[in-house]
Amino acid sequence: MSAKTRLSPEEKLRIFTESLKDSVKISEICRREEIWPREYYRIKEKALSGALDALKNSRRKKDAEKERLKKETERLRNVITSQAQSYHEEGKQNPPFLHEFL
What we know:
Elements (H helix, E strand, L loop, with lengths): L8 H11 L6 H8 L3 H53 L13
Helix pairs in contact: 1-3
């Protein structure tokens, strides 16, 4: 069996997803793709590990983005409130858009 020098990530994913089919034997895939079974099991391990990491991290990224947006909203609200107070202290009438924040 001549081993391929290097598989692209797309090829590795294709090999792994094909192996999930019930009717396909791992030995058939390895023979057809000219890879050693050991290489197939490395591909499988990385694919499962990567999928698990992606599922775990997707929630954290969303939460971090949500927190960032909350902080930015609070910062902007404080700026607007500060400007409204300055207008009030100077005796000026507040611009119409500031009324919803007061």
